[in-house]
Predict the structure.
Amino acid sequence: GELSDQLLRRACLDALAWPAHLTLAFNISAKQLSDPAVGLRILAILAETGFSPRRLEIEITETAVVAQMKIAQIVTAQLRQAGVRIALDDFGTGYSSLHYLGRLPIDTIKIDQSFVRAMRREETAAATVRAVVALAKAHGKKLVAEGIETGEDAAQLAGMGCEYGQGYHFGRP
């Protein structure tokens, strides 16, 4: 927890130098999400650094949500109320993904890279990606495709209506 707080603090300070339209996405672990005070700590770091909550997106995995549903609801509500956006990371890898679309205040769905990789080889995987794009649009959620490694991947996803992506095609971590 303390290390993550330090990393978030450093990331917020660094991101202050970025153009104002760019956001900072920061993952929190299942262990962090088990702490009901994690939302308040995040908000305290934002206040301390002067980083706008509207420029922060907290990413939580489905696995973390499954393990900590009640706390996840409390923490995400606190953060959303302050203007922080919430992303459900690795969407499609958990056992009840659709359940969370209505139970958590999620802004962004991040489709797992395994689907993006598979869509290159399998039409069924491409069909799944198209369905998730449609699902995200129907729910008014931003969709980010993870694991985009080539321009072909980016073009195929754009053709499906996916407007955002991350991966080696755009830059190494």
